[in-house]
Amino acid sequence: MVEGVKSRQSLPVYRSNHFVATDGVAEGDGISFADELILDDVYQLRHAAKRQMLRLNVDGQDGFKIAGGSAIGIPGSIVVLDCCITLMATDGTTLEALILVELQPDGVEDVYFLPLAELHVGADYRLVGLDRHAATKRLAEVACVSFSRGTNITMASGLQVPIEDLKVGDMVLTRDDGPQPVRWVGQTTLRAVGEFAPVMIKKGTLHNVRDLMLSPDHRIFVYQREDKLGAGRSEVLIKVRHLMDGETVYQQDGGFVDYFQLLFDDHQIIFAEGIAAESLLIDPRTRAAIPDDAEASQNEHQHRVHLDYEVKENLIPQRDAVGLLRKASF
């Protein structure tokens, strides 16, 4: 991991000129930052619109900087969360989106649009709300690694307990530090749509004893008996979104999902349905999701060695990564 970088975040964004005002004061212009937005303007997603992955390094000083290998943006540029907007479709349903702004010393370099639910090409979306303060919390909710309702967590006693039944003070088995007390249990209910729909790992796929459903950027910990990924080590962390094969690991799109977050004094690897998976990491992205009165450390988590085990995306095969890991960990 790059020195000084706490973590990385990959966001599937649109360029601002892919979401264009078709009626109103800003007609003909792409979506912009808060100071230039006018409520009641109508926008459409262009037919040529395509999400691109904005990869960000996260540290404790400058917040977000564009990482090398990002599909868009200038590496090293600062990116700020400008605002959270609310859009209304013609049927009256609403959805939220985040506006991110890339900065250079001489001003704004580019503006990016991150919808938190699926948009349809050519459909009308009216700008009905704008909040300059909600963006940080909404990104935190997206960035928080989460387990779905019903996920069994391995306790210090060996018992398997559904995550929704855990309480502050309960002792959970961790891979590195043995029994550790839960400091906070978070819960959010989100629309299970688009890039943020939960990822299902079917029973037995990675030797899990039951189906396991996680947030897309949740990292699982795998011990390889053989280094099938060419990572140079036997232990690897890998985001579940990179394991999707459409059959045994896939996104479950539609409806709503109840997500739960587990917080400990340190970032931990715990066990969910028999799979080693990470707990919530407090960093500049996620801090806003933790209430001030939570019985948890108010400081960001210190770096731990296992965070260096995350597999670089260029080492992950486009096909059957999960199959390789299943064989390697047998």
Structure, explained:
- It is built from two helices and 23 strands.
- The protein has helices at 134-143, 321-328, and strands at residues 7-15, 19-23, 42-45, 52-58, 64-66, 78-89, 94-104, 107-115, 125-131, 147-148, 152-154, 160-162, 171-174, 178-181, 184-191, 199-201, 212-214, 219-223, 235-239, 249-251, 256-263, 269-272, 275-278.
- The longest helix has 10 residues, at 134-143.
- The strands form six sheets. Strands 1-4-5-6-7-8 form a six-stranded antiparallel β-barrel. Strands 19-18-23-22 form a four-stranded antiparallel β-sheet, with no helix packed on it.
- Residues 1-5 have low confidence and may be disordered.
- Helices cover 5% and strands 38% of the residues.
The fraction of residues assigned to DSSP E strands is: 35-45%
Mean pLDDT: 87
Low-confidence stretches: 1-5
Instruction: Give Rg in angstroms.
Output: 20 Å
The major sheet is characterized as: 6 strands, antiparallel, barrel
SSE layout and pairing:
Blueprint: E1 7-15, E2 19-23, E3 42-45, E4 52-58, E5 64-66, E6 78-89, E7 94-104, E8 107-115, E9 125-131, H1 134-143, E10 147-148, E11 152-154, E12 160-162, E13 171-174, E14 178-181, E15 184-191, E16 199-201, E17 212-214, E18 219-223, E19 235-239, E20 249-251, E21 256-263, E22 269-272, E23 275-278, H2 321-328
Antiparallel strand pairs: 1-4, 1-8, 2-3, 3-9, 4-5, 5-6, 6-7, 6-9, 7-8, 10-21, 11-12, 13-14, 15-21, 16-17, 16-20, 18-19, 18-23, 22-23
